[in-house]
Amino acid sequence: MASKVVRWIAICFFVASILCDCVKATYTTNNQYNPAAHNYELDGLYCATYDSDQSLDWRSQYYWTAYCDQAGQPMGSSLCGTCIQVTNESTGQSVTVRIVDQCQNGGLDLETAAFNAIDGDGQGQFNGHMITTYQFVGC
């Protein structure tokens, strides 16, 4: 009986992982975009070509992040402007961010304010990175 329960639990976790549009153990670093000091202009960022005509309200509505997939491959333009909810694995704290750039680190590169918002234990700053999960969400 116990082996059937264990097998059923394993199947449930497998199905949930397929249905969840999220990635586990994502390496997440801090980037000093400092968008407010630059009037939220996207100049020099990958998504500037696609989203620079967006309003100031749109550009300033969410924290910013660079995104690349787990293999470190740059993203395509179709992800520009989309939002993801990022959760710090060690603290459980979450923040919603808008993708405005691409990166090469195989994870996320959050603007400093977003990084600090989910670094409740200070270990992210101490280590220079944190491990997060993320999920695509509506903006």
Your description of this structure?
By secondary structure, this protein is an alpha/beta fold. Helix content is 27%, strand content 30%. It is built from 5 helices and 6 strands, in the order H-E-H-H-E-E-E-E-H-H-E. It has helices spanning 2-19, 48-51, 56-60, 112-117, 123-127; strands at 22-31, 63-67, 83-88, 94-102, 108-111, 130-137. Strands 1-5-2-4-3-6 form a 6-stranded mixed barrel. Strand 3 and strand 4 (94-102) form a beta hairpin. The chain is globular. The termini are far apart. Residues 2-20 have low confidence and may be disordered.
Overall mean pLDDT stands at 84
State the end-to-end CA separation: 45 Å
Low-pLDDT segments, ≥5 res: 2-20
Query: Biggest sheet: strands, sense, closure?
Result: 6 strands, mixed, barrel
Report the oligomer. Answer: single chain
Strand content: 25-35%
Query: How many strand units?
Result: 6
Q: Residue share in helices?
A: 25-40%
The order of strands across the largest sheet is: 1-5-2-4-3-6
| Estimated radius of gyration | 17 Å
Concise overview:
With 139 residues, this protein is of the alpha/beta class. It is 27% helix and 30% strand. It is built from 5 helices and 6 strands, in the order αβααββββααβ.
Topology:
Layout: H1 2-19, E1 22-31, H2 48-51, H3 56-60, E2 63-67, E3 83-88, E4 94-102, E5 108-111, H4 112-117, H5 123-127, E6 130-137
Parallel strand pairs: 1-5, 2-4
Antiparallel strand pairs: 1-6, 2-5, 3-4, 3-6
